[in-house]
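Can anyone check this?
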Amino acid sequence: MLHRRHFTLDQANGLVPVINDLMLGLRAAHAELLSGGLDGELSLLAESTGGAWPGRERAEAAVTVSLAFESLEELDVLVRDVERGIVDFPTLMDGREVYLCWHVGEPVIGHWHEIESGYAGRRPLDREARRSF
């Protein structure tokens, strides 16, 4: 097994509101950092200012990103794509490890995929699949 924690569908859906809030904050902060040319700007500032941080907004965004990732890691979920807001929940389906797959904007988890297939291999949680979790 790849993961130490496995979620039931009910457990994962119970976390969706918390994860949605974390992902919305993470996406906004990530966009703030990217909009300022994070890597290039920081490199230039490091040469001229001894590494001073380029403004309060960017510093707050960096802290938000760090804290959001820390919180998501503590929940044992996997952030697959920050910009699209894709999160996977490890679960067991008929004794094998798979992922329940959710993204920002979905009210509940409605898809799953094999570990190797990723988002492109998402399948709907139809009645038969729901009985497997």
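Reply from J.R.: I decoded it. The radius of gyration is 18 Å.
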